[in-house]
Design brief:
Blueprint lengths: L1 E8 L15 H6 L3 E2 L4 E2 L5 H10 L4 E5 L6 H8 L2 E6 L6 H10 L1 H4 L6 E6 L1 E12 L7 E10 L6 E7 L7 H19 L4 E6 L9 H9 L11 E6 L2 E8 L6 E4 L2 E4 L6 E6 L9
Parallel strand pairs: 1-4, 9-10
Antiparallel strand pairs: 1-15, 2-3, 4-6, 5-6, 7-8, 8-9, 10-11, 12-15, 13-14
Helix pairs in contact: 2-3
């Protein structure tokens, strides 16, 4: 049996054209679409196209970061999935933030508030959360820990979904957050297979953390030396290692041009399930 997993930072539900010249203040303030040779930059709510792309992909579980909190329920419904949402930062006055983000997504940007959302095509049997950095300064970082039975798999496994601190100056914080997430996720998972992933904001070429995760927790499978988004596993055999989508796969048609969704590419991987359920007691 195979398990297909996907992780994607949704960039707060916004587009990100390959030509940075299209990201103008005119678009940001006046919501005027900018057109380049191949892509258009739009400043509008893109839930429908994000939902269609995610729903159309072949996965059993999806780990999403920078997901607008207001999207989680409708996104789960569109995907035929159950959802576990863990709020991250900037979520005070949520109704007002959500209203402003609907009116002008690019101007509000990350100030709408964020969440880590885990989608399971199957059954969720348990939800836990861990504050990795309590916030608000530096911003709040959380892990969503989900115990689930994907329908195609039929066996229970655990999923830890997080978005670690960003930027070279915060690398030490990101390393601490990811190691803490791994430690707690392994403790909570017991002997069940575990998938830990998300936007870890750490490149294996720049840190020894991935070696420590393998040594301490048997979590392996970093996407690549320069990748920030990873799907690490324990107790699952890799059938197709984590790999990012080509950029054009997250393009959606917009007349004679395309809208490119998010500033991150989704990363997907395929695993072989254990031949028998783990003892999770």
């Amino acid at each position: 049996m195979e398990l297909r997993a996907l992780t994607w930072n949704l960039f707060h539900g916004r587009d990100h054209p390959p030509d940075p010249a299209l990201e103008t203040w005119r678009s940001r303030l006046l919501r005027i679409s900018e057109r380049g040779a191949t892509h258009v930059q739009v400043n509008r709510d893109l839930f429908d196209v994000f939902a269609a792309l995610i729903a159309g992909a072949d996965w059993d579980l999806a780990l999403l970061q920078e997901c607008p909190p207001r999207w989680s329920g409708a996104l789960a419904e569109a995907c035929g999935a159950e959802a576990h949402r863990a709020l991250t930062s900037r979520n005070s006055l949520a109704p007002l933030r959500s209203l402003l983000a609907r009116l002008n997504p690019d101007l509000v940007a990350s100030n709408e508030g964020g969440s880590n959302v885990t989608l399971i095509r199957g059954e969720i049997r348990g939800r836990r959360e861990l504050a990795l950095t309590p916030g608000p300064v530096p911003e709040r970082r959380t892990m969503a820990f989900t115990r689930a039975v994907p329908a195609r798999l039929g066996l229970e496994l655990c999923v830890a979904n997080l978005h670690a601190s960003a930027g070279p100056s915060r690398r030490g914080d990101a390393e601490r957050e990811v190691e803490l997430a791994a430690e707690r996720a392994c403790e909570w998972a017991g002997r069940a297979p575990l998938l830990l992933g998300g936007d870890l904001n750490l490149r294996p070429s720049e840190t020894g953390l991935f070696d420590r995760l393998a040594e301490r927790f048997q979590l392996t499978g970093a996407t690549g030396p320069e990748s920030l988004d990873h799907l690490l596993s324990r107790g699952l055999e890799s059938a197709a290692p984590p790999a990012p989508w080509p950029p054009e796969r997250r393009d959606v048609p917009a007349g004679d041009r395309a809208i490119r969704l998010s500033d991150h590419a989704p990363v997907e991987a395929t695993f072989l399930a254990p031949s028998s359920p783990a003892d999770t007691g």
